[in-house]
Amino acid sequence: MAAAPITVVPRLKLGSQGMEVSAQGLGCMGMSAFYGPPKPEPDMVALIHHAIAAGVTLLDSADIYGPHTNEILLGKALQGGVREKVDLATKFGISFAGGKREIRGDPAYVRAACEGSLKRLGVDSIDLYYQHRIDTRVPIEVTIGELKKLVEEGKIKYIGLSEASASTIRRAHAVHPITAVQMEWSLWTRDVEEDIIPTCRELGIGIVAYSPLGRGFFSKGSKLVDSLSDQDFRKHLPRFQPGKLEKNALIFEHVNAMATRKGCTPSQLALAWVHHQGSDVCPIPGTTKIENFNQNVGALSVKLTPEEMAELESYATAGDVQGDRSPGVASTWKDSETPSLSSWKAAE
Prior knowledge:
Elements: E1 11-14, E2 19-22, E3 26-27, H1 29-32, H2 41-54, E4 58-60, H3 69-77, E5 87-92, E6 94-95, E7 102-103, H4 107-121, E8 126-131, H5 140-152, E9 156-162, H6 166-175, E10 180-184, H7 196-203, E11 206-210, H8 217-220, H9 223-226, H10 245-262, H11 266-275, E12 281-283, H12 290-298, H13 306-315, H14 341-347
Parallel strand pairs: 3-4, 4-5, 5-8, 8-9, 9-10, 10-11, 11-12
Antiparallel strand pairs: 1-2, 6-7
Helix pairs in contact: 2-3, 4-5, 5-6, 6-7, 10-11
């Protein structure tokens, strides 16, 4: 049983610079990359148009999705007057030049990446432009300084960070206001609550939660892994490996039982938990199916009491969750510190 569909998707203020977005966004990565083969373009354009018609306007992409093909897909979906109806977010910072993965935040790369994204998306300006990962070789002040120039030139409207440490967020925000920080946040990935969330709230920075359904785990539990293609990188996630998956499946069983009691799906319940974190939080669940999108939007109508929130959290305590969230990575943002500006200048 699914929760009743919501008739109007509410809006929320993201950050303190004036950006306003739908209270739930749409992660577009899986349409083009990483979650198995690329999905049929006409179907994905139809899904994007359906989302916009339903009131979900925050569309989240990145140049590395494909690479490049997801932005090209979005560009096609935005034609014919659709652009004016969306809050467009994309990211830069992960390069795959020559088949080699490299994190880059140097000014020349920032500018070239932005120009490339504008061209692929077919737009004059990007609403929210994130640094996807932090280049630990370049002071964050240098990277943000170039992004600030792009804001002044009208090529981007708002600046975001993804997977950044608390101190990096503070240093970046001192150069130019950061509108949003994107982070993995879900019922079973909660380490950001220690430093990142409080820092964002102190500075008036919006919070965008990616993978709020645990990369699909809270939709199907352990059955999810059986349905993944060999091209799906989730097959390699530590939490989905034999020995760990069986124990993590117990978390899903508890969530599923509670969802049954509440008359919603487990994914709606897990997503509602993220929504109840505050009016400054926008989760961006991804999907490639209209029926799943409709179910995700339905999570906005699921109400949770403080007691139910506590019950949900008791199912997925840090000791219960088996495995890191990514291969060899407990928290990438803990390693995201960049050199100081003074040491950078001295080395030049």
